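Treating backbone geometry as a discrete language has practical consequences that deserve illustration. In the encoding step, the backbone of a single protein was reduced to a row of integers, each denoting a local shape. The amino acid sequence and the backbone structure tokens for this protein are reproduced below.
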Amino acid sequence: MSALAHAPVFFFPALVAGLTALLWALDGAARARRPMRAGFITAFVFALGYFAAGIFWIAFAFFSRGPAFAPFGPLAALGLAAILALFWGLAGAAQARLGGRGPARILFFAVLLFAAEWGRGHVLTGFPWNLPAYVWPGGGAVSQSAALIGAWGLSFLTLLGFLTPSLLAGRPVRAGRYAPLLVAVIVFAGLFAWGAQRLAAAAPGEPTGVRLRIVQVDIGQREKWQDGNQAMVRDRYLEATGAPGLESVTHVLWPEGALPLYLLEDGDTLAPLSRLLADGPTLIAGTPRRDTEAPGGTRYYNAIAAVSFPGGRPRLDGLYDKVRLVPFGEYIPFAGVFRSFGIASLSTMVEGYSPGEGAANIQLDNAPPFAPLVCYEIAYPLFTARGARRPAWIANLSNDAWFGPTAGPVQHLNIAQYRAIEEGLPIARTASGGWSGVIDALGRTNRLVRPGVEGAFDFDLPPARPPTLYSVTGNAAAFLFWACALAGFVVVRRRSIAKLLRRRS
């Protein structure tokens, strides 16, 4: 039920009820003969259901790959949910052992859950999907606080605020029990009011002079990668790209892995593009690429290429290789072990990709510099360059067709809206099988292209805003909240903690 708080439902009271029930269950686990074990199991089982319901769309990536992969879909979704739930299980074990019974226990549990969320968002490659902050729709009033404290800071406030109703249990109900809940309501009312004022006061800004054509073609994953369909896919993209109005466009965007071929090597694609885009717009496209001269043999990359066609000849103006790769989708962790069970990568053209060197900007002659992000790289806060290297916009090219008609594409869009707010930068997003369009620097989307719609859609790029407080200070506010809550718990429970330490010594 708690997963209903996230996109596309955004029913945040579901998570309020879920966290309250979880804390009450952990209060019971604290009285068990083996409280740490009981606490771990309680929180783990809760989180297993919470994450499985929130990211069940992962199974569709396996269904899309074909019958040979379909049986692994549910196992992969449950397996990933179980891995993420381990972090919450550890938090539950610590809560049952150390949290105590008083009101201060909500401070400690918020500290533990935030640490669990931080851990699952950073350990190994991390998976910071459906953070607690994302229960507030991106581009809405409350989400504007991400410009100050980021999604991580808002996540901590959300966890702590959503735990306050748990203090209302028990008899008799004293007036003081309502104080934390009242404070939480005041805090979120203040965030809402500040965000609403920020949205209302936002000036339109100076035009950028950049007009984007987002190309979307509705081809299923299995059909797209079927042998012999390369020409059909190419022709559909070329036809959509050449729709009327191309003369007023400065840049054409194709999604991640638009064509089932190596675009930069394919003369049958570059030749018609050279005629279509001669001395015209720059193509920014997602494409697999290979480096045949790499040390140790050929290396493959999931890339974004910016190609212009001066005089009708292709010229590579910028190239970015994806850094944060999707486990099993783009590389196999512990590859030898999994291959022994016959489990291969979901990638169709190659068995696995290599990561790029790091985040980068691409500078073009006809546009301000932009940060290229491939697919779920948009899920990582603070991934774009800052300071003197701060870009003017972000291009997020994705392939959401893997995830079918599920909540996955909507959640991906919501995450992208938070990155726009945090950075104060507009985002041009083209997502095959997902939600495409332009997000302004406040996270708003005036017009979106729905999944399953085919054609060319033109947007003016909105201007950037000045650097946000979060883009300058990073997660300092989130850790300040965390440290203050932990210190408050220690102060209130200092006698019990001292007694416990003496007992253990």
